Amino acid sequence: MKRNLFLLGALSLVSSLKAQFITYVGDKAGVYVKENALVYSGGGVKVVGTGVVDNSGNIMIVGDASSKFATVTTDGSNKLDGGNFILRMTQSTITDGQPTLGLRYGQLYIQGLTQGNITGIVDKQYKDIKHGTYQQVALPFFGKTLGSLSSELGKTFTNTRWSRNEILVFNNALVVSDNIATSSTTPKGTAYFMLGSNGLDTSNPPLGVFTVKGIPYANGITESLAGAATGVNFGTNGTATNKYRERYNSYWQDYFAIADGTAAWTDNFGKNIYQYGNPFFTNLDLGQLGKIITNIRGVRIEPSGVTSTAQGATWSATAKYITYASGVATGDVNAVIRPMQTFVIKLTDSNTATLNFDGLRRFAYTPRLEGTPYSVTAQSINQGGKVAMLSNSTLSSSKSINNTSSTSSTVKQLGLIALDANGVELDRTYYVVYGDAQTGQPSGASTQVAASGNLMGTFEEIPTGGIDESLSSTYWLYINEANEVTYKGKEIPMYTFSDKIHSFKVDIKENAKPIEEGASKLTSNESFYIKVGDKFTELRQGATLPVTPSSQSAYFGLYYGKPANEVLSSVEVQKPSSTVVVFDSSSNTHRVLFDQTWAKADVVVYDMSGRTIASQKDVDASTAFEIKLPAGQATYLVTAVSEKGVKFSQKIIK
Asked: What are the CA-CA distances from residue 295 to residues 323, 384, 392, 446 (Å)?
């Protein structure tokens, strides 16, 4: 059998057959769309019999209420087994640190068609980093029976909660992951699903990729950001339970509120958080949300290290974050939300916002910059793009910080990316300065995000420079901010906790845009610096800075603006304790690694009721201390006090 093949160039329009179907691919015919090519159909699309559209690039179907998208048999009935319209994955490299950087795939944009006129089956090739015990996914398939995922992903899903074989969907209002039966169909395009990953490794499909099939959603998708956790009482220290009798403190996280100085389980902690899936077969660009949703605190993306216990406790060790308090996106600003991926939005308060997903769609794999009106193919976006609306608010063209206009200062960001000996990313951290940034623990919304199970991070600073010891055992930071003027030339303390770190890659941005390769000077004529030992190095964009791997924690100082010599000689910068609890997988035990400056320590372990589980005085701090915990799953608090009174505490979820 000879298959007809149409190799389409940068922009193509397949000839008209009927008003409902501008583009027609007949039985035994084939259309191949190259990577980076754009195919435009100004109306409906029909694929017949064994005809196929094999898309490695980008296809736009733009029609009206009479237009249709269909895959049919040769007798004209709906063809539901797929194989006719393929969104092919062209690059499927999964790497640590930047797991989705190497993923490339065909994308599909549908505009103007009604849901009832979309009956065609799309084969979406899928591969992604394995998140852990539960895979966090979107399912952009209208009316798809969830049980069909069993054959598509090569594992059997059941309805048994806590089995890691069930399918869950997140309930934003009640802050709980609800069971959803395998006989059910997808409830909506923006649903945030969690797939039990017992026997499922999405990073290593047996055939290279998985293929998930279904009907695309029509455009016109919006979500009202209102009511998340409004009626939920988390209880003292999060010990209240949800409807499945799971404690909130066993799974609910809010690293935004912690970094803003909010005590856990009080005030805005855990409130106004919305979890969504990408409802489309295009990327989503979240880079401009801060321009329109003025009460947005930040976005959480790419969770990893998802861990569960038999009692239902589930949490993620790390993630990436974008924050907007400066009026400019900060943190992981290069990220986009890929098809079948999820994201989490945190608002600063309960004011209602409406998120229009249509205006987030983007073919490119990096966000837009400001400057041109919205288009799915645009190189940049300005506020004319309809992305979201905030109730009872107005949109300003200037930066907005806590709903007040900022100074004319730009937002300057230093990113340090830790690399192993092969140049593979292990972790990263960010330091942000701007005119209205808050030095020390913020009194309200900031660009900051607390760190969790990271291999590197910074600590909250005091106005004169160095660590705020009163907060060092409370939280540390993935994104840290300080005032550009008052904190210039003062040290931000940074620690690393891995002997696999061999170098730092430098990523400097101003107003979310990278400065020129090899450059160091910002528009303020200042630079970022790093101090290693007593040596200062001016950091240049794109440079790689070798560091000596250390089996113990390693300390570095970060600076915006080089300090004057007299400041260095007269101010003793305080350094944070590098004491940390680690899990030794070889012996299945937890150990305390003490700060190098500690000689002795008193160690106490408590359970969550406050009962002492273990206690030992005058522990030799020159060696690791093994923590003896009872068998079974539970949560514990480890505290340690040095001979000089320096305090440390860390939670263990076993």
From this structure: 11, 19, 11, 11
Q: Which pair of tokens denotes residue 514?
A: 């990278």
Name the amino acid, one letter, at 570: S
**Tens-place pLDDT, residues 176-233:** 999 999 999 999 999 999 999 999 999 999 999 999 999 999 999 999 999 999 999 9
d(CA 119, CA 73): 12
In 538-630, where does DSSP find H-type helix? Answer: 565-570
Residue-range domain boundaries for the chain: 4-159+176-214, 222-398, 412-570, 580-653
Separation CA 70–CA 120 (nearest Å): 4
Sequence-separated (6 or more) residues with CB below 8 Å from residue 194:
134, 135, 136, 137, 167, 168, 169, 170, 177
Identify the pLDDT of residue 408: 56
- Euclidean distance between the first and the last CA atom of the chain, given in angstroms as a whole number: 59
pLDDT tens readout for residues 498-549: 899 999 999 999 999 999 999 999 999 999 999 998 889 999 999 999 999 9
Please state, in angstroms and as integers, the Cα–Cα distance from residue 100 to each residue in 104, 113, 119, 421, 455, following that order: 9, 31, 30, 21, 20
Is residue 9 pLDDT above 50, yes or no? no
CB 593 within 8 A of CB 577: no
**Rounded Cα gap, residues 507 and 419, in angstroms:** 13
Under DSSP, is residue 250 helix (H, G, I), strand (E, B) or coil? helix
The rounded distance, in Å, linking the Cα atoms of 385 and 626 is 56
More confident residue, 372 or 296: 296
φ and ψ at 516, to 5 degrees? -65, 145
Distance CA 507, CA 496 (A): 18
Q: Give me the CATH code for the 580-653 domain, please.
A: 2.60.40
3-state secondary structure of 527: coil
Q: Tell whether the torsion through CA atoms of 532, 537, 541 and 545 is positive or negative.
A: negative
Q: What's the whole-number mean pLDDT along residues 597-618?
A: 83
For residues 356 and 386, the answer to whether their CB atoms sit within 8 Å is: yes
Three-state DSSP class for 202? coil
- Distance between CA atoms of 417 and 554, rounded to whole angstroms? 15
Cβ(334)–Cβ(367) below 8 Å: yes
For 291, phi then psi, to 5°, come to -75, -20
Three-state secondary-structure class, residue 289: helix
Q: Do residues 575 and 623 lie in contact, with contact meaning Cβ atoms separated by under 8 Å?
A: no
Cβ(458)–Cβ(475) under 8 Å?
no
Instruction: Please report how many Cα atoms fall inside a 13 Å half-sphere around the Cα of residue 581, on the Cβ side.
Output: 22
Q: Residue 222 contacts by C-beta under 8 Å, 6 or more apart in sequence?
A: 354, 355, 356, 357
Assess whether pLDDT exceeds 60 at residue 441. Answer: yes
Q: pLDDT tens digits for 378-401?
A: 653 333 333 333 232 222 233 333
Q: How many whole angstroms separate alpha carbon 139 and alpha carbon 158?
A: 18
- For residues 388 and 353, is the Cβ–Cβ distance under 8 A? yes
